[in-house]
Specification:
This protein is of the alpha/beta class. It has eleven helices and nine strands. Helix 2 links the parallel strand 2 and strand 3.
């Protein structure tokens, strides 16, 4: 019997009639990095505090906007450490990691002038604005859409005039490939799609992505992700793994499990059909950023999204237990 893989990129899918759908704002871009670059330009940001542990796409946007980056380490809450202070001409970027560090973001919003805080919510699609801060979203991390990104409030940026509809149609090829069961072939298309989003030019959200997004079930995805997180966390804690508790109302992107030297474990999991991404290969936190380094090097990010249910989460836990046992025996030999 063929066992379906768990994790990895999405397949083309739609929701049943009567579902509660997300809706893209009027000012939306082809990627979150495009939205961030436009936001930085519009707000005339000159210097921006950015965590060491952040996606390279963020730095691409910062550089494209001509902004000088100041870097900071993460504290134990995955938040902004106490030594960071904003000068009058400085802004802050903080990240809601995996949709799980919202409390740390809220703390930053109480410490710093909200109008000079940008919250990277690309891993926290369901986050809501607290006050005068700017939010940055990336729907393709949560739903099967080929591109997309926007800021909230949208009114602070100008509507892009250039469109990307034709490229978006090509980019969607990997969604079709997985829906057709061609997982391996689709990975090449997926990586090509990622590469096509490398530039931070102000390009508008495609009509295809807007239509696909309107076909996703917002409520069902939220409930499935929270339920799967709780299930997988329970199984993993029973096996001795450390997994953060799920904050109230948080909607997770993945389940983070602490594993020393996660790279070989990740590779072995992939060999048995469980796919865990790396966040982020291009992020290189310095030695004093122990939290950022642990998130990059010593953490597995296990799938818990709306494609799966209880049996799938049990399979993920069983696979990880087996792989860890094999890894331990190998180290002992």
């Amino acid at each position: 019997m063929t066992v379906s893989p768990i994790g990895g990129y999405f397949a083309w899918s739609t929701a049943p009639a009567g579902s509660v759908h997300p809706e893209a704002p009027s000012v939306a871009f082809r990627s979150a990095r495009s939205a961030l670059a436009a936001c930085l330009r519009q707000m005339r940001v000159r210097r921006l505090w950015v965590p060491h542990h952040v996606c390279g796409a963020v730095m691409t946007a910062v550089e494209a906007a001509g902004v000088v980056a100041r870097r900071y380490r993460l504290d134990g809450t995955w938040g902004v450490p106490s030594e960071v202070a904003l000068d009058d001409d400085e802004w802050l970027l903080c990240v809601d990691y995996l949709g799980l560090s919202g409390h740390a973001v809220d703390t930053a919003l109480r410490r710093f002038p909200q109008s000079r805080v940008i919250v990277d919510a690309s891993q926290a699609f369901y986050r809501q604005r607290v006050g005068a801060e700017t939010l940055l979203f990336s729907p393709r991390k949560f739903f099967p859409v080929p591109d997309g990104g926007w800021t909230d409030p949208a009114a602070i940026v100008t509507v892009p005039t250039e469109s990307d509809d034709e490229a978006s149609t090509v980019r969607a090829g990997y969604l079709h490939a997985r829906a057709a069961g061609r997982l391996e072939a689709g990975y090449a298309a997926y990586h090509a799609a990622e590469a096509s989003l490398a530039a931070a030019a102000p390009v508008a959200l495609s009509g295809l992505t807007r239509a696909l997004l309107a076909e996703q079930d917002l409520t069902a995805a939220r409930e499935a992700r929270r339920g799967n997180y709780a299930t997988l966390r329970q199984h993993l804690e029973g096996l001795g793994f450390q997994v953060p508790a799920l904050p109230e109302a948080a909607v997770p992107l993945f389940v983070p499990a602490s594993v020393p030297d996660a790279a070989p474990i990740r590779a072995t999991l992939a060999a048995v059909g469980i796919f865990s991404p790396t966040f982020w290969p291009d992020a290189l936190p310095p030695a004093d950023d122990t939290i950022g380094r642990a998130l990059r090097n010593d953490t597995l990010y296990l799938p818990c999204d709306q494609r799966y249910g209880y049996a799938d989460m049990k399979r993920v836990a069983d696979a990880l237990e087996y792989v860890m046992q094999q890894h331990t025996r190998h180290l002992q030999d």
